[in-house]
Structures are given as structure tokens and as C-alpha cells.
Amino acid sequence: MSLGSIMFDIGGVVLQAEERDMLRQPRAGGVILFSRNYESSDQLVALVDEIHGLREPRLLVAVDQEGGRVQRFREGFTRLPACSLLGELYASDQERGLRIAEEIGWLVAAELRAVGVDFSFAPVLDLRKGVSKVINDRAFHRGGEVVALLAHAYMKGMRSAGMGAVGKHFPGHGSVTEDSHHTLPVDSRRFEDIEMEDLVPFERLIHYGLPAIMAGHVIYPRVDDRPAGFSPIWLQHILRNQLGFQGAIFSDDIGMAAASVAGDFVQRAHSALNAGCDMVLICNNRQGTSEILDNLAVSPDPTSQVRLMRMHGRPAQDRLALRNDAKWQRISHEVDAIEQAPELNLGNDELF
Fold first, then answer.
1. Which positions ≥6 away from 349 have C-beta within 8 Å?
2. Helix, strand or coil for residue 249?
3. Which candidate, 131, 142, 134, places its Cα nearest to that of 84?
4. 26-339: what fold?
5. Domain boundaries along the sequence of the chain
6. Which of 126, 252, 253, 278 is catalytic?
7. In the chain, which stretches have pLDDT less than 70?
8. What is the pLDDT of residue 341?
């Protein structure tokens, strides 16, 4: 059996019989975990082991573990600062900012790999322009070159811990006020302006070997009238051909309100795959997931299979070995100290 092209969520801390059946369907390719799926480290290891053991090649298991507002697993994991904190550190001390970005990338990946999770959807490559509330402090900085430097360091840290990075949300979500979870954002800038700003971090990280990208649900009408995640112009002509990206492309959640312009759930999945996505995410909609798994008509693409298989996590330390590792102890302690420092609280948008 090949790895399917649909990644979806599960309901709780253990798999239900219906979920096992869904994950064994040929179109299934992975599971995205949320806070509701985490009770303890032991429970999470057992859950991920069961998911991985359902079939061969094993399903991908992913999570959003960015830090700040977006950290699904907290108890038993190091509390991670928002990425904007790294931008502030970089502004005051570039060398230290880059060092800590790499260490946090390593920490995120090491802790997730110790419980079996293959990858996190991180880092955010959007620009923090003070416009988008949904992005805001999830972004490193407002400048594309600084975002590229910090994200590259973060990616190197992840790679050294056995995990591939996923840059998001291509080609950039930081210049729109709307939240694609609830409505359809439209960015009316010229392509030349997007290229000079938002595309910079993506272009730089592609050059450094970024293994995966998540496409956003934003329309850029001067380029295409479809959201980027459903656009062959963005995903094939610009991302693949112009930027030379050879890694895996994930859609953002097609259950979001912004994705509804592509039709029903089966039509959305089909459109995303036809546009160039290798794997489509659908979250928090069991009926929509079932419709896709039962009705989506696609044939496995060998090239897409190779891209996705590269996202499996590489061998890593187990939890006990990691906790006894001097590197983990040092970095975890340093991150705790940074997170708790009141002078580095970046809740104020005026800092950027």
C-alpha cells in the first residue's frame, strides 16, 4: 500500500475502531494531532505507536508546535516562546538570536521525536507587519531577510534532531487582516511587491533545502483568482518552476472558511491535489473527512510519494535519554528563562 494524500485529525487520546478503519483506507496518509489528543507523554507514545503500526509505509504524524499561542503539547514539554521573541533577541544581539533560534528548533524537534511525532508544521515564514492578527507574534520579524536568517537557524536545529521543517504559509499571510479560518483573505498587491517582501524567506529556505511547505488560503488577484493552495500558478509555475522547490507541499486545512470557494470537500481536496499539493489537510470535520476518503478519485503519484516519505522522522533519543541529555537540560533551562523574562514580553504590536 502506498502513502495516501489525505491527513486528518482524530477525536481523543486513544484511537476508536472507526478511526482505525479510516486510517487504513488507501487515501489516508497521515494524522494531525491537537491538544485534545494529549493526556501524558506515555499516552502520546502509545497513540503514535499505534498509528504508525496500522500500515506500511507508516502514516505520517504531525502537530502544530510553534510556541507561544500555538503549542498543542504543553505539560511535560518545554514551554516555547512565540517566534516573535526570537526576532526581538536578534534585534538586540544577532549572534545570540540566531543561536537560540537554532537551539529552539532542536528542542522542538527533539521533544516531538522522543514521543514519535514525525514533524511539526513550523516554522512560520510569514512577515510580522502588524496587519494580521492570526499571524502576529507567530512570525519572527517584519523583515524578510531577518525571517529567513532566523528560520534557517531554526530549520538547522530541527534537522539535527531528526525532523524536517515545514515553512508556512506560502506565499505569505502577513499582509492581510482577515483570518482564513473564518473568511477569505484577499491580498491585492502586485506580484513584484510580494516577490520583494513575502517570498524572500521562502526563496532563501528553498535554497537551503527546506523539505516541505504549507500553502495558505489567501487570494492574490493580480496573480490568480484562486487561493494559493488551490492555484497551479502559485504552486507549479511559481513555487516549483520559478523558485525551484522540490519538497512536499501541504495544503492548509481545507475545512477553513476560506477554502469553501473550491466547492464541497471532495472538490476541495481534488482541486488542491490538482494544483500541486502532495498532501491535503482536513481538520475537525468527520463528515467531510469521510466524504473525501470514500469518494476522492486520485491515483498515487510516485514523485509525490517520495516527497512525503522524506517527512518521516529520523531515529532519535527516547524520552528518558533526552531528559538525561546535558544539551536538552541546558537549552530547556535557557528557554524557560527567556520565556519568563518580563522585559522580553512581546505582546505589544508597536515593537514591530
1. 130, 136
2. strand
3. 142
4. TIM Barrel (3.20.20)
5. 26-339
6. 252
7. 341-352
8. 62
